[in-house]
Amino acid sequence: MSVQRGAKVLNRLPVMLHGESGVGKEVTAKHLHNASQCTGKFVSINCASIPESLIESELFGYQAGAFTGADKKGFKGRIAEADKGTLFLDEIGDMPLALQSRLLRVLETREVSPLGSATERKIDFQLICATNVNFRTSR
Fold first, then answer.
1. What rounded mean pLDDT belongs to the chain?
2. What was the pLDDT predicted at 122?
3. Are strands 111-112 and 121-122 parallel, antiparallel or unpaired?
4. Residue 17: beta bridge partners?
């Protein structure tokens, strides 16, 4: 598929890139972002490189004082940072299943609620995920 065709799909649907490590999935994702109609930035996060205990706060953000060790100002979160842009989740196959459920909720509602907050914020972003896991044979 060409980058232009991929960008047209990305403007309507999340995109999953599959391939071995080192084949250029992130480079492809950046090209798709640049060819798309979005006006925001490209936000990349490697799901395998963040400890399971921190990935939720990294993605969804948190309110000030939400947990011990939290920044006193709070944290916006990578999903909110991708508002009007593209969120690239590399190694999505390594994301904990419970977190995948919460991410699915954000995709359905297009709203994100930081940890420790009772309010939800509307978010408009494109999603590109990448993995080297073969889901057909891994489960």
1. 85
2. 94
3. antiparallel
4. 130
